[in-house]
Structure formats: C-alpha cells, structure tokens
Design a protein that fits this description.
Largest sheet: 8 strands, mixed
Shape: elongated
Radius of gyration: 25 Å
Structural class: alpha/beta
Strand content: 15-25%
CATH class of the largest domain: Alpha Beta
CATH superfamily of the largest domain: P-loop containing nucleotide triphosphate hydrolases
Distance between the termini: 12 Å
Number of domains: 2
CATH architecture of the largest domain: 3-Layer(aba) Sandwich
Number of strands: 17
Number of helices: 17
Length: 445
Amino acid sequence: MGSSQTFSLTDKQTEAMDCITSEAKHNALGGGSRSGKTFLLMLATITRALKSDNSRHAVFRYRFNSVKASVVLDTLPKVMKLVYPGLWERSKLDKTDWYITLPNGSEIWFAGLDDKDRTEKILGMEFATIYFNECSQIPYASYITAKTRLAQQCGLRLKFYFDFNPPSKRHWTYRTFISHIDVDTGNLLQNPEDYTYFLINPGDNQDNLASEYLDILNNLPEKARKRFLLGQFSDDDDNTLWTDEMLAKCRVLGQITDVIPEFIRIIVAVDPSGCRGEDDERSDEVGIVVCALGSDGKGYLIEDLSGRYSPEKWGKVATDAYDRHGADKVVAEINYGGAMVESVIRASNPNIAYGEVRASRGKTVRAEPIAALYELEKIRHIGYFPEIEEQLTAMTTNGYMGVKSPDRADAMIWAFTELFPRMTKRDNKNKNRDITVPTAYSAFA
C-alpha cells in the first residue's frame, strides 16, 4: 500500500488495540480469517520497538517459511509503510539471520520453531516482546520453550502476543485463554487477569476486504465457516490423526474372552525419559505399553504400564510385563539414553529378547501409518486407556498439540510399528509441508 493512503482502524480493531495494550502480560487475538489480527499485533510490536531504543523483540511461528512469507515479506512492510511512512526505507532487513533493525537500534527477530538450530540461536537472546503468530499450529512444548526468553529489561512492560484462527477446544490456546486452565497442572490459573482474549472476525474488517471474500467464507462447509468466518473453537481438530469417534469404534468391552482371538505375537514397548523416580514431576513419564497381533490380523492394545519410574524401576516393570504376557520381544526407543536403555533392560533380565528403535523422523510422520490402521479398524483397545487416548487425540498433521510429551502414545506407536512392519514402512516424504495461502488485497494481514 502506498504511504499516501490514510490509515484508520475499524471500531472493533480499536477495541482490540485497547485489549492488547492493557496491563495484562499475555494478550491473544482470536477469530476468523483476515480480520486484521496479524496487522494489529505487528503494529503493537513495531510501536513497542520504537518506544525503547535498542530493545529486542521476536515473532515466532511454527514454520519459518511461513513467518517469512506472510509476516516479514508481507505484513511487516505494509504496517510500516501505512502507519509509519518512511520507516521501512530507513530500516535494515537482514535476510541471513532474518531480523530487522529500526533506526533507533531496536531489532525484531523472526523464527520458525520447527528449525531447531535457528531456534536455539535465537533463544540465546532475551526479548521484551514475544509474538506467537498462528499459534494454533504451535505445540505447547515449543511455546513453553520460547516463552522463557521474555526477559529483556528495557523500560517496557514485558508482553506476550498471540493470534490464531480458533482450533479445537483440546488445544492449549482454548484451555489457557478461554477456560483459564493451567495446562501443566489442570488447575485454574492463579492470575487469570493476566490473560486477555479478544475475538475479532472478518466482518469486523469488512471495510478493508472485498465483499466477495466474505461471501466465500460464508459459503464454506459449516465446520470451516464457524472457524474462519465466526472464529469459533471446534470440538475436534480437523487435522487430528485420531478422533474420539475413531477410538470408540476400536474399543473391546464386555466378556473379553469371548471376542479376543489367540495372540500370535506380543510386544512390550518402552519410551524412556530422564525421569529419576515417582517424585520427579519435572520430567516426562516413561512410556511402557503391551501390544499384540491377533490371529485375526488385528492389533490389540493390552496394557499401559507407563509412569514416573527410576531406570531400575522401569526396567523391572518392562521385563515383568514381558514375563507375565509371554511376550516375544521388548523394543525400546534409544534416542534418549543410547546403550544405557539396553543395559537397564538387561540388568533386570539378561535373557530377554530385545530390540532397539530410533526416532529418525518426527512424531507425526511415525504416527500417521498407525492412525491409518485405526481408520481401517485394524487396531483394538481392550478396555479404556484414557491417558494414551488423550495423547492420541492431540496428535495432528501440524504436530503434537498436547501438553507434555506423548510418552504413552509414542510407546504404543513403537509397538504397533513392530507388529505391522509392512504397513508402516512407507515413504512419508513431503507429508508435513506447510501451505501459505495468498493474501487478499488489504492492508490488514
């Protein structure tokens, strides 16, 4: 947009600015597509950077290519040229490390949380503002890691900004900003007034949108219409790999002995962690599950023994399950611990049949073939497994959206991968690419 244009906010956008400039530390804008959320939060970030010389600010999105395309090369110059004429030309954009330096020495850094090396480099710095863009795609663990860097003392009140098209009610954004639940503990937030949420939809930005665009949104399928036009959270994530309905169909209840076939192979799978014991609340649990292949060709989830164990304890839990079920093998993921994992197992039972598995691909890529087995109704759960099932329904094509590590689900996935090797060895190349939607003709991104 040319700098000769006049700039003004709609009434609803003015209300949104009042919300995000409040004293609350965590400020979220949720709502439908193209309502001006990114524009408003970039405006707030730039203004903060201009108010404090040599301050540092960060914009995170799940994938770097997306933040570069939609924010750095689109929204950022639009905001500067429209609101602060001449600022874009006087600033310097570094396209190697991807940050912009303003005339007063302040910097705004841009990063994708999927790039481990780049993220670690940026997280070595401190920021006065951290903005999570499209955080419906950002896993909770990635958000928590980045959150630790809001620490720069520069005369500004420290601020977190968030924007998103409302995802599933299972997502951490709903639990945090709508239910005011502490995601880690499950308790109510101690300071809910420190978390503001403002709903803003495309209809609130219609002065800056083509009428045809609103017509498109209004004619979407109902579930998509509620999300992208009305900004409503859904009961299920469109991108989830497992749904409650899918899991309900796979459940075996009643007289188990009447419906369970003979097991022709049984696997105990272990997903280790750095846990030191049951009192170690900071570490992830050790995932330990027992799965089997039935004579009917279906897989069966038999037992979940996961928990907070010391290495000595989890080694015994796994080998006891091996003996109790007459299992064929113990498989353990060795990315954490390496040779130590086998030594723990062998110390408990030196004669056990043991195999190693290594995570060379992301959780989603490993999970998709197993989710496909569920869709084909080739997996059965013998009873209820609430912890595993909660983790499964938090796995999406955009990554794991649960609270902590999916240790139980990971162990189950390793077990079924071992039991169905032909069906799980497939090419997943390019399965997890992010798609950037072209922007509409509007100053508001």
